[in-house]
Amino acid sequence: LELAEAYGIQNFEPPGGGCLLTESSFSGRLRDYFDVENVSGEARLVRSSLLRHGRYLRVADKVRLLVGRHEQENNVLNQQWRRAEAVHFKPENFQGPEAIAFGPVPDEMFQMIGGILARYGKPHPVEQNTIEYQSSSSKGTFVLHTVVPEETIKEMIV
Length: 158
Known about the structure:
Elements: H1 2-6, H2 24-36, H3 41-50, E1 55-60, E2 63-67, H4 71-80, E3 87-91, E4 99-102, H5 110-120, E5 130-134, E6 139-143, H6 150-156
Antiparallel strand pairs: 1-2, 2-4, 3-4, 3-5, 5-6
C-alpha cells in the first residue's frame, strides 16, 4: 500500500490472501505432515492434497486423522482413502463424520478414533453404536464404547 501511495496509484485491487501457505491453520498442518510423512508416489501427493479438508488431528506420534466437517468433505475422504493408503472410518448406525487415518494405526487405536467420530456425530444414547473401518488389507466393524472428551480432542488438533 505504501508503494502504491509513493507512485500515486489510487485505483488498484487491495492485496489479498488466497494462498493456503499463508493461513496459519494450513501451514501448521503442512509442517506436521512433513514431520511424519513416510510414503511416496501417488499416496504422498493425495495425502498432501487432503490437508486442506476436514479437521486434522495428531492422535499419536506417527498417526494423523482427518475428520470430515460436512457431507462434501466426507465424500472427498470416502473417495480418496484408498489412493492415500489410509484407513477409512465411518459410523455404521448413527449420523456422524467420516475420517481417514494416516500412519501405522494399531487396532487398539480404533476405539479412540471411533470416539472422536462420536464426539462430532450423533450417537444413539441407548443403542450400541458401531463404526465401520476399511484399509487395503482389512475391513470390519466394532462396537463403540466411549466418546472422546472435547478437551482431549482440542489437544490433538493441529
